[in-house]
Hints:
Layout: H1 10-45, E1 49-51, E2 56-58, H2 70-79, H3 84-89
Antiparallel strand pairs: 1-2
Amino acid sequence: xxxxxxxxxxxxxxxxxxxxxxxxxxxxxxxxxxxxxxxxxxxxxxxxxxxxxxxxxxxxxxxxxxxxxxxxxxxxxxxxxxxxxxxxxxxxxxxxxxxxxxxxxxxx
Length: 108
């Protein structure tokens, strides 16, 4: 398989990916601070649509929601006598995936 990284080593790919992930983490902190500021502004002014020079922010409250605790429901159904065949027929299977995680190296 040919990639745009063909001329680089695996170590340099790992280092570059680590750098990118560190930049993303920094940007996420900035995003969180700016979002908090916009929420505070909206709460103070009642203005929930704010225009910038290039972008528009819309702030909305999302109502709480509830969902069924699948483990508790399964335990109760088993207690009531529902057997394994029913669970096998009514399962949803999520496809597997490959994850790549990067962590900073400790200086030696």
